[in-house]
Structure formats: C-alpha cells, structure tokens
Amino acid sequence: MATFGTSTNQQRGDFQRVERERERIERENREREEQNQLSEEQKEEIKEAFHLFDLDKDLKIDYHELKVAMKALGFELPKAEILSILQTHGAPSEPPNPNVPHHPRLLLSFRDFQSVMTQRILARDPREEILRAFELFDEGGKGKINLNDLRRVARELGEGLEEEELAAMIEEFDMDSDGAINREEFLEICMQ
Fold first, then answer.
1. By CB distance 3.0 to 4.6 Å, which of 100, 101, 115, 137 could disulfide with 145?
2. CA R_g for the chain
3. SS3 161
4. What is the pLDDT of residues 62-76, one digit of tens each?
5. pTM of the predicted model as reported, rounded to 2 decimal places
6. Regarding predicted confidence, which is higher, 109 or 93?
7. Residue from 154, 145, 118 nearest 38 by CA
8. Which residues neighbour 103 within 8 Å (Cβ) at sequence distance 6 or greater?
C-alpha cells in the first residue's frame, strides 16, 4: 500500500512540474508576442535604460536602479508600486559571503524588466503621451506653443531650422489663428 501512495505522490509531483513548465512556456510566448508589438526603437530604449542604470553591471537592477530606469522611460511611480513590481517579478539577491548574515534585496533581471516595461508601454494612453510631449514644448505652462517655444526646442535638439520654417510650422497647424498651437491642435497634429 505504501508503494501506491508513493506512486500517487510522485505522479502528483510530476503533474505539478509539468503544469509549472507549461505555464512558464505560455508566459514566455505571451511575452514574446508583446515584445513583437513594440517598435525596434522602443525595444532599444528599454535595453538602454536597463544597461545605463544597472550601475554594478550584474545584469540585475535593485529598487533604486529600477526607479531611475523607469523614470527615464517616462514612468514615475510611487515607492509602493515599484516595490510591488519587485515583489512580483524580482528575485532575492545572493549573499556576498554565505557565512555572513545578509538582508537580501529584491533584484529584477533584464528579461523581467523588459517584460514589465513592455506591458507598461503597451498600456500607455497615446493622448497622455502626446500631452506630456506638449508640456516639454510649452515653457511656462501657458497652454500654447508659440514661436519662441518652437525656436527653443529646435535649438535644444540641434535642429538648424530657419525662422521662416518655424513660423510656417506654427501657421500651418494654428487652426484658431492666434499665432500659437494649443493642446487640442497639438493632439490633432500628433494623432494623424
């Protein structure tokens, strides 16, 4: 009778291992499909942010590195949300010396960072992103982009645009003829 119980327990364990493997494969396939929805530029931005802020170059990032890498990608999250990401996707750090007690930190691998960021980027509201870009142009929060704003951004980006070209841009998209581009006009330009 003990043999039967052992066999059943072994079968149950085998079934659980197979089920975990199946779930892992499904998760990897889902992540691969999500990755394919990103542009090459977005994939590269994720990779660059990770490697730039992986300060100790161990291919894992901790809380502080994750916070800054996400901010660089346009995601400024509260501490609780970053901790939740680490608790869900992270793994405890290895002790530097097994003979010395250590308090493990949660670390996120590149693969997990890539997966988390892919999901967040795909979930972004394009209008929200466009309005965030508008704020970069709209110095002083006037609610409009004028010729001075456009000139400043062109200079910051190293674009050698002539004054006439900048004025023509404003004129082309200024629907209410007030000499500036407001939020709605900017959204319309970008959503085309």
1. 137
2. 25
3. coil
4. 999 999 999 999 899
5. 0.59
6. 109
7. 118
8. none
For the chain, where are the E strands, in sequence order?
A: 60-61, 91-92, 106-109, 144-145, 181-182
Residues in the chain: 192
d(CA 97, CA 161): 58
Question: Which 8-state DSSP code applies to residue 7?
Answer: H
Rounded distance, CA 86 to CA 104, Å? 12
Question: 3-class DSSP state for residue 73?
Answer: coil
User: What dihedral do alpha carbons 25, 86, 112, 114 form, nearest 10°?
Assistant: 140
Task: Tell how strand 106-109 and strand 60-61 pair up.
Answer: antiparallel
Mean pLDDT calculated for residue range 94-120: 85
Q: Say if CB 147 and CB 164 are below 8 A apart.
A: no
What the block records as the tokens of 166 is: 């900048």
DSSP annotation of 140: T
Of 126, 139, 137, nearest in space to 74 by CA: 126
Distant-in-sequence, close-in-space partners of 128: CB < 8 Å, separation ≥ 6: none
Distance CA 93, CA 54 (A): 14
d(CA 165, CA 163): 5
Nearest CA-CA partner of 105 in 75, 69, 64: 64
Alpha-carbon torsion (143, 160, 129, 136), positive or negative: negative
